[in-house]
Amino acid sequence: MEPVNNDVSAGSAEGANAVAGTAPGAAEASGATTLGMVLLAVEELWPESLAEQWDEVGLVAGHTTAEVTRILFAVDPTLEVIEEAIDFGAELLITHHPLLLKGVTSVASTTAKGRAVHRLIESGTALLTVHTNGDSAVGGVSDVLADALGLQNVAPLTPATNGLPEEGIGRVGDLKDVLTLGDFAARVFGILPAVAGGVRVSGDRDGLIRRVAVCGGAGDSLFAEVRASNADVYLTADLRHHPASEAREAAVDGRPYLIDVSHFASEWLWLPAAAGALGNVLNDQGHDVEIRVSGTNSDPWDFILTPG
């Protein structure tokens, strides 16, 4: 991935170097910003009630009374990202993907998950997950993707059950001007961080499109909603062979066309917006916290071979 401008500051924290392991009550007594205060701001932006039932979001490690002066946002809680957070001096790492989505019976340091947990705790770095609640909320992953593509009249593909009309999984909207599928795919390629997988397209390169459905991350469970939205093209990640093939077979006049992108790349776009939003809330509440977006490319693929 190309280097990114990843400084999103809610204030200056120069000289501050407290860690998440601060003794309970010490940070609060000093009037400092605590992890608990940050959690309240996060809940305001991305309520846990918006998370899907199968998801695991919220605080994974950290004392709510510990002081927070620096926060790092990232897509994945990989060991490389954790080390980046530690090197930055962040007392809090906020990731989109959960570290412990599936149950484990051990966090021994002989396992990858265990090494991550040990490194977080031993370094005094708290970990917070904002996953499908970050997808569904206003200004969430798919909202940011839709905005980057210039979509108008945007609405959720699947409205939230217990949320606002604007909340839910996926988004659908209209381009200001009609584009060919080839030109739109080029626009997609241009806004995403560079990854090995690039952008895969299914459909007539010269086909005209206006209505666009998007879902950051894996979205091949939403084809019924995409068809119901009358979208000309569906942009998402991790499209598997059979769902994609069946979607092509069920297409009407070739639509919806399909654009398959990197899972990491589609969700990375949200990080600067999320960091900025949290910084604004904390700043409005009088908290002095420095926020940065990770520069680590955690896409799992390194290179690809293609015909020609």
Automatic annotation (TrEMBL):
What is an example of a GO molecular function annotated in this UniProt entry?
Answer: metal ion binding
User: Where, by residue number, does a divalent metal cation bind?
Assistant: 96-97, 135, 263, 267
Alphabetically sorted, this entry's keywords are: Metal-binding
* Domain of life (superkingdom): Bacteria
Q: Does the keyword Protease apply?
A: no
One GO CC annotation: cytoplasm
Q: Which InterPro entries match?
A: DUF34/NIF3 (IPR002678), DUF34/NIF3_sf (IPR036069)
Q: Which family does it belong to?
A: Belongs to the GTP cyclohydrolase I type 2/NIF3 family.
Could you give the subunit structure recorded for this chain? Homohexamer.
Entry protein name: GTP cyclohydrolase 1 type 2 homolog
The organism named in the record is: Arthrobacter oryzae
